[in-house]
Amino acid sequence: MNLRSLFSLFSSDLAIDLGTANTLVFAKGKGIIVNEPSIVALNKINGDVEAVGKEAKEMLGRTPGNIVAIRPMKDGVIADFKVTERMLNYFIHKAHGRKMLVHPRIIIGVPSEITQVEKRAVVDSAYHAKASEVYLVEQAMVAAIGAGMPITEPSGNMVVDIGGGTTDVAVISLSGIVYSRSLRVAGNEMDDAIMQYMKRKHSLLIGETTAEKVKMALGSAFPLDKPLTMDIKGRHMIEGVPKTVTIDDTEIREALAECVAAIMNAIRVALERTPPELSADISDRGIVITGGGALLKNLDKRIRHETGLPVIVAENPLTSVVMGTGKMLTEFRLLRRIAIE
Q: In whole angstroms, what is the distance from residue 54 CA to residue 313 CA?
């Protein structure tokens, strides 16, 4: 057994997509080993972590008084530092099968417009979770790499990464970001919009878990070929009892209209700010959409309709960021070029 393979046994480097909705962890040589919701259930009385990830998500909106389910990430950044640290700790231990002595190098994807303080919070929480080195990369950049875009070439690539908390729009050329904008309108905002709409239109109160299911089943950005309907259960505001309402895709499209318009606007602004040479490349290559929001029905049609450009949905939009970040574990030269200070 040569030294190299011995070293790879101990290589515990991780790439993390620390998302508002889901956290994914990619281990060098193993692929994606953790893909769970970014949610922590805490016991209010003694501060213990009751559950993390999938288990905690099932508790959302269903907890007794002494347990609270928290999403420590808000709008793509850390809202609750202590809880994020515990969540990271949990995911890193889970990734390493609870081996305590590992001090991995960790690369984390963050939204493009986060402040120094927010960056510091991410780095600190990773060091607290026992990392030996921490690198930050911009989500839009790694999403483009994960989606297989040729970002190192001298030509324009446009990527729209719609996550849970943020939508990142970026134009990339020669491994650098020419233009980027981070918008705090994404998946969670869409769930919210559905909750508000149901309240306003049908006097029905629904939780975020239900809203998310509705978005996945009926949500669309452009009229569908076949109409879809769904029964939604919730609590009626006036009568105060559980009730079921049947709604169709046009209503949910109306509910999501503002969110989709905000994303469309960000794309339009990005196209206006792109240097002409790169614009020519984008009109040939098109726009690549990734992130969970890329799964919104007919979003590609809507963008094509409004910009006249070809639109490609990344092959596995939910994992583009973590796959791109994972590639950085082996391509250190590229990592040095794209890591944020």
A: 26
Nearest to 39, CA basis, from 104, 89, 84: 84
Shortest CA distance to 189 belongs to which of 61, 76, 84, 63? 76
CA atoms of 38 and 16, how far apart (whole Å): 12
DSSP string, 109-124: EE-TT--HHHHHHHHH
Strands (E), the chain: 14-18, 22-27, 31-37, 40-43, 49-52, 67-70, 73-74, 77-78, 105-110, 133-138, 157-162, 167-173, 176-183, 204-205, 229-236, 242-248, 287-290, 311-313
Could you tell me if 208 and 191 are in contact, meaning their C-beta atoms sit under 8 angstroms apart? Answer: yes
CB 138 within 8 A of CB 114: no
Angle at 95 between CA 89 and CA 101, to 5 degrees: 70
140-191 pLDDT per residue, tens = 899 999 999 988 888 889 999 999 888 999 999 988 889 988 888 999 999 9
Question: What pLDDT shows up at residue 6?
Answer: 43
Nearest alpha-carbon partner for 51 in 69, 33, 65, 63: 69
**Chain segment 194-211, per-residue pLDDT in tens:** 999 999 999 999 988 899
Q: Give the whole-angstrom CA distance, residue 134 versus residue 105.
A: 6
Q: Transcribe 69-92 into DSSP letters.
A: EE--EETTEES-HHHHHHHHHHHH
Q: What is the C-alpha radius of gyration for the chain, rounded to an integer number of angstroms?
A: 21
Q: Which domains does the chain have, with CATH numbers?
A: 3-38+78-141+321-338 (3.30.420.40), 145-185+262-317 (3.30.420.40), 187-255 (3.90.640.10)
- Please state whether the predicted TM-score (pTM) of the whole model is above 0.85: yes
Band the pLDDT of 9: cuts 50, 70, 90: very low
CA distance 192 to 197: 9
